[in-house]
Amino acid sequence: MVASMRIAPNLLRTCKQLTVLPRMVSTKILTVDNINPQVITMQYAVRGPIVIRAVELEKELAKGASKPFKSVIRANIGDAHAMGQKPITFIRQVLACVTNPSLLETGKYPADVVEHAKALLDGCGGHSTGSYSQSPGIDLIRKHISEYITRRDGGIPSDPENVVLSGGASESIRNVLKLFVDHRKSKKVGIMIPIPQYPLYSASVEEFALGQVGYYLEEEKNWGLNVTELERAYQESLKKYDTKVLCVINPGNPTGQVLSRQNMEEVVKFAHKHNLFLMADEVYQDNIYAEGSKFHSFKKVINEMGAPYNMMELASFHSVSKGYMGECGMRGGYVEFFNLDPDVYVLYKKMISAKLCSTVLGQIVMDCVVCPPKPGDPSYDQWLKEKTAVLDSLKERARLVKEAYGSIEGVSCNEVQGAMYAFPRLLLPPKAIEKARSLNQEPDFFYAMQLLESTGVCIVPGSGFGQKEGTYHFRTTILPQKDVMKDMLARFTSFHKKFLEEYK
Amino acid sequence: MVASMRIAPNLLRTCKQLTVLPRMVSTKILTVDNINPQVITMQYAVRGPIVIRAVELEKELAKGASKPFKSVIRANIGDAHAMGQKPITFIRQVLACVTNPSLLETGKYPADVVEHAKALLDGCGGHSTGSYSQSPGIDLIRKHISEYITRRDGGIPSDPENVVLSGGASESIRNVLKLFVDHRKSKKVGIMIPIPQYPLYSASVEEFALGQVGYYLEEEKNWGLNVTELERAYQESLKKYDTKVLCVINPGNPTGQVLSRQNMEEVVKFAHKHNLFLMADEVYQDNIYAEGSKFHSFKKVINEMGAPYNMMELASFHSVSKGYMGECGMRGGYVEFFNLDPDVYVLYKKMISAKLCSTVLGQIVMDCVVCPPKPGDPSYDQWLKEKTAVLDSLKERARLVKEAYGSIEGVSCNEVQGAMYAFPRLLLPPKAIEKARSLNQEPDFFYAMQLLESTGVCIVPGSGFGQKEGTYHFRTTILPQKDVMKDMLARFTSFHKKFLEEYK
After folding, report:
1. Does residue B40 sit at the A interface (CB-CB below 8 Å)?
2. In chain B, what percentage of residues exceed pLDDT 90?
3. CB B54 within 8 A of CB B452
4. End-to-end CA distance of chain A
5. Biggest alpha carbon distance in chain B?
6. Is A242 strand, coil or helix?
7. Does B361 contact chain A (CB < 8 Å)?
8. Range with the poorest average pLDDT among A140-149, B29-38, B187-196, B407-416
9. DSSP characters over A127-141
10. pLDDT of residue A165
């Protein structure tokens, strides 16, 4: 339903063209009638029609068009630098040195930056970042990642051989999902994903023609995972699918919850009981804000739970795009496998080899994240100061957003415990819902588009992430810097009042 | 056949484990018995078992192991920097400035580098290369690419809107192939690919469960395309497949031919007659060495041929990994679409949006390639000198390789007109073929593995690219620098003599 809604504008246009110009369309070899059907049905709302319209509006403003607002505020995507966050100096100094090694000899860079850059260049073919790396990534960086994981998890060992770098975490997530595809079988493999969820999952599951098995997060319990609901979703799925995978996003996207240790143990027991492969999206592991919240990796939890849980198959993902660094454009990420069948792993590495390797500079940013300056290193103080400033500011904005949305009539908002998003609920008046339906739009899509056209604020409707029937939400990032954030909240509040007035 | 051969070592190991340890294997959720079957059958020889062994040998040498050689020479992959080619200064200076913009103010960089970097940063969200770009790439870079294409093709217009950047050309090639997948249909879409071919094509066709339609290149005519052979392959394919796509690699990989203008017109007429979508892999467009050879883009040719050919659907690919820059690790590339159905294009852009964007720094390297210093710019002289030196040296090595392999008994080698490879033919003695078969190996795989173990020279057997039944070849790059190249040719010649002696 949701999927068919969102594509409406394109398909409508297509239908019109098919009606008006049948000859023109039919002369093409590749058309919407014979294209990969999964490409038609897959949807990725974070870059959907509302965002496309936001980009158009920005271009119109740049050309001097008159609008009821002076700027577009893009709160649709977790893109920290685009919202004014400054890069971490250490990372950028290392990048400059590895791209232009003549800088190493200038004496202008701190000794630890120079040392770090030299070690990385030693790991590159011909000492150049312009060489391909091995497909799983540069050996030294895989080693640093596994050392980081070991430290993070309080000493639970990690083997560099089980770490594979990729162009952002997305690429690894998609590669792992792809392993479960089998078009010969009549029953698709079912992939359990949260609702609401980050639409990379629904889009990839759809693109690969896997089976989407949604389990609802409990809004009333700050978007926690309820095992009864997991069980319901699993049992129902078996009618259609051979369900084999459980995806968990922690901290949550778009929902901002941080799973408690106890909740994670329940989830692990559930997954073990049904022989499910665990995919743990842990890209927000550095983004924890709430008092009493703490990040636990699934790897640590299953290991500490002991046998038989420590034998479970797990793929855990991390990225350079989030955390305190927010280096989205660099496309760095990794997957760590745990207990993967060794023969499957051989095939995995073969599969990714056709794409040669992920960007070496993205790998290097990942290295700077997992192997930052240590106390006593010349770069340490500045690095710590910058990191702390970003995380403190995000924490403040997480609080600000919850308070602001929570105080508006007809909006409710859970605490943003972690990650980079709030997912407030909208109580839309029946007349607004009616109006949206008359336009063949989801009510929260209608709301979000009106908000954009009236105020320039770009958010993503909840229907793009999934939500309980009859509820409406939107996702907003907490990334706008404080002054922009206040501007955004003011624009939103004013629009929302008018909207309620219009449709009361 | 070839595919099943190459996987033999892994599968054999798997089979053994299944026999010896059935319980261990069966406890896993994801196993070789239920993994995506396309992942088992797909093969990518450029990073296959011989290369894996080469990496092992390098590690053994580094640990001080005694071998009959002191170094591994990796002639298996077109990885210029790994083989000692130096980066182009202009590209690396721009990269340093966009990653660490404080360099812009130091006065140490040429004015055109600074200007270039500033313009690119203006195109990035929040002026940071750490921001996501739009999924098709940064607008300014798409514009520069289309201006480059227009210049290259003598004024034939190119629209920036039709250009989409990607992580290397490979990603674009795979994305376009994916459009033709339809698992609902009993007849797969057939993709015509050359034999020998760059195994990205066979691997991706296999991974996506498309139909591989091989057409043989004519070794006797310097690996040219023969329309009679295209016709044969096409007609035969129709029994099994709904053949819709013709892939052409020009200049050729692994075969090094440069198509003549006349040959291209024949190919275009063939494609038009059968309503085939053209995929033109033109990543070696700057690598032309032979007297009288010239690069013509398929876009230029179909436009100059006029109607109805200028209405044909075409996707053309380019990359930063080859040419004179060889920036493989940066993962920059693009596809230009021509005459693509507009609704298909909307869906294409939606499909790639789930992967967010390709690496921004890879996009920036692409920009430096399509928008290099102009005469009169402060960086121009050095840029031209460096570019010319690389291309002149490649030209010399292309000649050297052909002469060397051509002069060895039992080896023949076509002229390397372009690209970065020679694909010499091996006349193997029947006893060697017998020996290989007894080991369940392809004869040229057997030869290449022996060569590696005895001399450290790593080449890729012809069976990884496909070849006519009963013929044996190998692919070697022309990338080793001149002294290494001479060393490699000496090692090869000495091994080859001994091999012929052993199996005579």
Report:
1. yes
2. 80
3. yes
4. 27
5. 72
6. strand
7. yes
8. B29-38
9. G-TTSPPPTT--HHH
10. 98
CB B96 within 8 A of CB A104: no
For residue A145, the cross-strand partners are none
ipTM of the complex: 0.91
| Nearest-CA distance B107 → chain A (Å) | 14
Contact A42, B350 (CB under 8 A): yes
One-letter amino acid for residue B321 of the chain: S
Tell me whether residue A117 is exposed, middle or buried, using C-beta atoms within 10 angstroms of its C-beta: 0 to 12, 13 to 18, 19 or more.
buried
Q: Are A197 and A465 in contact (CB under 8 A)?
A: yes
Residue A440: partners with Cβ closer than 8 Å, 6 or more residues away:
A5, A8
Residue B12 has pLDDT above 50, yes or no: no
Helix axes A380-406, A482-502, angle to 10 degrees: 20
Interface contact B197, partner A, CB < 8 A: no
Q: Count interface pairs A-B at CB distance under 8 A.
A: 305
pLDDT value at B305 more than 90? yes
Q: Cα–Cα distance between B74 and B460 in angstroms, integer?
A: 10
Which residue out of B10, B11, B14, B36 would a mutagenesis test of the A interface target, given it has the greatest number of A Cβ atoms within 10 Å? B36
Shortest CA distance from A181: residue in chain B: B36
Question: What pLDDT is recorded for position B185?
Answer: 86
pTM of the model: 0.91
| Residues 6 or more apart whose Cβ sits within 8 Å of residue A97 | A103, A104, A109, A113, A114, A117
Shortest Cα distance, chain A CAs vs residue B196, angstroms: 17
Query: Which residue ranges in chain A fall short of pLDDT 50?
Result: 1-26
Chain B residues lying within 8 Å of A247, measured CB to CB: none
- Reduced to 3 states (helix: H, G, I; strand: E, B; else coil), residue A21 is coil
From A301, A298, A331, A295, select the one nearest A315 (Cα to Cα): A298
Contact B330 A361 (CB under 8 A): yes
- Closest residue in A to B175 (Cα) is A39
pLDDT tens for B54-103 read: 989 999 999 999 999 999 999 988 899 999 999 999 999 999 999 999 99
* One-letter-per-residue 3-state SS of B431-492: HHHHHHHHCCCCHHHHHHHHHHHHHCEECEEHHHCCCCCCCEEEEEECCCCHHHHHHHHHHH
Residue A51 CB contacts under 8 Å (≥ 6 apart), including other chains? A74, A76, A77, A458, A460
Residues in chain B: 504
In angstroms, the CA B446 to CA B458 distance is 12
CB B317 within 8 Å of CB B169: yes
Summarize chain B as % helix, strand, coil (round to 5): 50, 15, 35
The distance of B74 to chain A (nearest Cα, Å) reads: 10
Count Cα atoms within 13 angstroms, Cβ side, for A26: 6
The answer to whether A358 contacts chain B (CB < 8 Å) is yes
pLDDT at A10: 39
Q: What residues of chain A lie within 8 A of the CB of B358, using their CB?
A: 167, 331
Chain A's closest residue to B125, CA to CA, is: A82
Amino acid at B388: T
What does the pLDDT read at residue B13? 41
Residue A120: which residues within 8 A CB-CB, separation 6 or more?
Answer: A94, A98, A129, A138, A140, A141, A364, A367
The CA distance from B58 to B74, in Å, is: 10
Task: Provide the pLDDT for residue A48.
Answer: 78
Neighbouring-strand partners of residue A211 = A190
Which of B89, B87, B121, B124 has the alpha carbon at shortest distance from B102? Answer: B121
pLDDT at B495 over 70: yes
- Tokens (6 digits) for A383: 């690095």
Q: For chain A, percent helix, then strand, then coil, each to nearest 5?
A: 50, 15, 35
Task: Give B252-268 as a DSSP string.
Answer: -TTT-----HHHHHHHH
Q: What is the pLDDT of residue A7?
A: 35
